[in-house]
Every structure is written in C-alpha cells, then in structure tokens.
Amino acid sequence: MLHAACRNVTPLLHPRPALSKAPTHSEVSLNRRSFLQKAASSFLLVRGLPALLARAALGISPLPARAEGKRVLELTPADCDTSIADCTLATFESPFPFHAAGLLWNGATPRLQFRTRADGEEWRTWTDVRVEEDAPSASGASASGLLTFPSSSLAQVRVSPDVTSALPPGLRLVAIDASAGPTPAPQVIAAQTGTPRIISRAEWGADPQLMTYRPEYASVSKFIVHHTVTSDGGADPAATIRAIYYYHAVTLGWGDIGYNYLIGHGGNAYEGRAGGPNAIGIHAGRFNRGSDGIALLGTFTEQAPSTPMLGGLASIIGWR
C-alpha cells in the first residue's frame, strides 16, 4: 500500500467410513480433517495420480511445480457454490495450519470480510479485506492484499453486512504456511551511518525457484514508503516476508517480491526484489520506474512505527 513519496521526508503511514448411527457434527469434521491431511500429505510426498485425484475431488488445485514441497494450497469453498446468487458466506478448510492467505475471484469486487479459526478455538473477529491495488495479478483475476493472522486451519469470507450482494464468482483462497525457514538474528536498533547492514534474501529464506523475474534497472530519484498491511511477524518477521514473497511472486504472478527493501519492527533491513540497487520493483503502478519501494513490515493506520523501525528506514534512505 502506497503512503508517501519523496526524498528526506517523514512518511505519513496512513481461510467417512459408514456408521451404525448418524454421525455427529464433530465426528464429520474430524474425519474430513483426517482425509484432507492424508490427501495433502500424499501429494507433497508422492505427487502421484491418486493424490492428485483426491485433491481435485476436494477442490484443491495442484501446486506449481516450482513450489514443490511447500505448504501452499489453493482452496475452493467447502460449503458454498459461488456461482449461486444467494451465497454470501464461504468456509475454507486447510489440511495444515497456515498463517497467511490471499483471496482471488473473478469480476467486480464487493466489500468482503474475512476471519479465521484454529482447531478447538472460537472464530476470531471479522476484518475487512483490502483489495490489491499496487499491480494487477498476472492471471487477470481480482485479488486481495495478503492477509496474515495467528496460525489457523479454517477461514471464512463473507460479504460485508451493509452490502446486498453475493460473493464474487470463482472465489478461492490461497493458504500459505511459510513458517519453515531461517530466522535471522536482529542486527540493528537505531539508524546507521554509511552502508547499512541488510539481511540478504538467502538469510531470510527466499526460495530462488519461485523467482521468474529478470531484473530491469533505472536510476532511483525518489523513495516510496509503504506499509505491508500485514502483521509485523512478531518473533519471526522472516516468515511474514517469505509469505509476502510467495504471494507476490507466485500467486499474483509478479515473478518476485514487489518491494525493493523491507524494514522489520526492530529496525532490521531486509533485501527485497532481486537485482540489487536500482532494480525496478512492483509496488506503485506507473511510479515503479525510478523509485525504491521501501515497505515497513506491519500495519500502521492506527499506530506509529517504532523508533527502531524509523531508524532502519532512515538508514536505507540515507545510504541510497
């Protein structure tokens, strides 16, 4: 999300076997979950035809070959046909816990809301879905911004209660678990002079197989400061960055993460788009060329970034 553009500016950071008696709801849910887990495991480990057929029957799309072994699934609603005009709430169930997700759909964009639930817990609060505006998806589908949340196995999407329309057709959810990977140690707590320490893509766990973008370059004359409108990653910001990377590179089809640099809540700077200084990112539409897109990891519509985070931002801008 775009928030400020210029040099030396303080930015305003605006998802059974037969029984002798009728199964209970909990028994149905337990057996469905067991089957989902076995089907997904079969695909990830064997990748054979039976597993592919099982995934197709569950409404789960095959993973791209370049995402082999990663815990990412594209899901269709378990209880709602979005081609039916009166479908206003859809539930998605994943065979593994996930902490990030994106929504894709066809056509116009109604106001949507989203919530998640972990096994054995209550549903969390509904939140508004932000539409991805920095660049369109390569497939032409409408897309949300990346959604992040505590680890969950269920998600629901509904039309905002003040809107009288159905869910958009072709609605699906991309469930992402990017928790497996390196956790770089914190490096800075305040602004640095000279060349700042930047955590490399290899250090935060960027899978080079996901990148299909060939870097292009233009001299940088401005900085565009964003916030990612996600969580700040807590104790493991690299996991959130890996989720953003997958969503940008693969789900939206941009070929790589859109931002040139990211700043964590502790002030650490992370290398974003591959190619080094002056690589053209995807973060601000027609303003991509000639700008550095620097993203503050988190959501800052109602609270200010931390002092270390602003120090990390200043270090990157001063160096560039």
Can you give a write-up of this model?
The protein has 320 residues and is α+β, with helices and mostly antiparallel strands. The protein has five helices and 14 strands. It has helices at residues 25-45, 49-57, 201-204, 237-251, 307-319, and strands spanning 2-5, 60-61, 71-75, 89-105, 112-117, 127-128, 142-143, 147-159, 172-177, 198-199, 222-227, 261-263, 269-271, 291-296. Strands 2, 3, 4, 5, 6, 7, 8 and 9 form an eight-stranded antiparallel sheet that branches. Helix 1 (25-45) packs antiparallel against helix 2 (49-57). It is globular and about 60 Å long. 40% of the residues are buried.
**Could you give the count of β-strands?**
14
**What structural class is derived from the secondary structure elements?**
alpha+beta
Q: From the alpha carbons, calculate the radius of gyration and give it in angstroms.
A: 21 Å
User: Number of helix segments?
Assistant: 5
In the predicted model, the low-confidence regions spanning at least 5 consecutive residues are 2-69
Distance between the termini: 21 Å
Tell the overall outline.
globular
* Largest sheet, strands/sense/barrel: 8 strands, antiparallel
Approximate helicity band: 10-25%
List SSEs in N-to-C order: EHHEEEEEEEEEHEHEEEH
Strand residues, percent:
15-25%
Round the mean pLDDT to the nearest integer and report it.
Answer: 80
